[in-house]
Design brief:
- This protein is an alpha/beta fold.
- The chain folds into 2 domains: about 5-225, NAD(P)-binding Rossmann-like Domain (Rossmann fold, 3-Layer(aba) Sandwich); about 235-445, 3-Layer(aba) Sandwich (Rossmann fold).
- It has 14 helices and 13 strands.
- Helix 4 packs parallel to helix 6.
- The longest helix has 21 residues, at about 95-115.
- It comes from Phytophthora palmivora.
Length: about 450
Amino acid sequence: MTAKTVLITGSTRGIGLEFAKHFTNAGWKVIGVARNGSKADKLQDLSPFKVVRFDCTDEISIAQVAQELKGIPIDLLINNAGIYMDGGLETTTKDMLLRQFEVNTVGPFLVTRALLSNLKLAAEKNGSDGALVVTVSSQMGSIGGNKFGGNYSYGASKAAVNMVNSSLAIDLKKDNIAAIVVHPGYVVTDLTGGLGDVHTDESVRGMTSVIEKVTMKDTGKFFHFQGHEMPCNRGLGLSFAKYFIKKEWDVIATTRKGANLDDLKALSPSKIITMDVGDESSVLQMAQELRGTPIDLLINNAGTFTGSGDLRSTTKDDLMTEFEVHAVGPFLVTRSLLPNLQLAAKKNSKYGARVAHLSSVWASIETGSGPYAYAASKAALHMINHRMADEMKPHHIAAIVLDPGYVATNLTRSSYEAEADRVVNAMVGIIEKSKLKDTGKFYHFEGHEIPW
């Protein structure tokens, strides 16, 4: 079997050198990148396949190396080179901002673009396995995960590279090249001044474990080195939780196993339950745990997106995954919590109880034109809601469907037309105004009805 090839920027020390050690030991051909004028003794000691020199902000030196590597398939590109300059609101300078954007954001873009032909060669060689671009980012680049402020230039440069990766994921998907970003943890390196709570070997071991498992379905995602996804922005579920906690509702939040709960826990909801909407046993366990608890409002928000597949590229797995999450999941959850909704409806004799399913205008058969798997699964949800509306109406439970628009969330890779908090405020307004006579209807978050 032919050895695979990895190119690692910033590989003379720290995380980059540890990546070089890992892949050398794993039998890969390692192309290490050293900055012009920097020492590369430790990298050379590994006897890598090749050591090249360029500054990731210098287009001329990048182009020269790209020419040197012409015709060599690169299976994995790791954009690791980076700099860190601390700075608060009063101390951050324009030069600090521009320099960190240049190295941490522009650099990975230039390197990836220059080596695109090498990545394409590898993707063609590897068939379904394709090729992969990994950019080392930071949780400081997570807008949804920002709790402490400060670090303006570093955080902004990493948020920007996350967005660059999001666009790369879209543009490179047709070439069977995936692109992800990873958070290495707070690592003991020169960049952190020797501080940190994770050593390079542990960080790289975790990141390479993530890399080994990545498929095209993961392109565009942001992973913690421990394996879970990181928030790029606020999701709708979290914004719903914020809204109702602020209104002093008892909020019961559900989350998938392994999800990052920091932002949710910070809100102090009444209860957090781990549940997978596609796993009937976990849904039933959740229902048992909530037995006897009236639920005034059930919001079925969990969703997934396997990609913008067309007629040729949509797979059976894409279709089945989205049907399971978008149609089967809400059905199982609503049915299992029907006794709780009925308890609330009896308690609220005038208002009753409500079920709200989050869907998309893409699922409107009359006006929609979205990706096959996503649109079809949401259209199936509409029919399920229509049937539920009829069956639950005698119990004074209304069921509606809401289109949140194209929102900035992890699902949309942070591309957006509207922000989650504003959209949630609008959708809650619709829910509050809905009456039993509105059951079965499909609303846009701006208030108008959408045709089925």
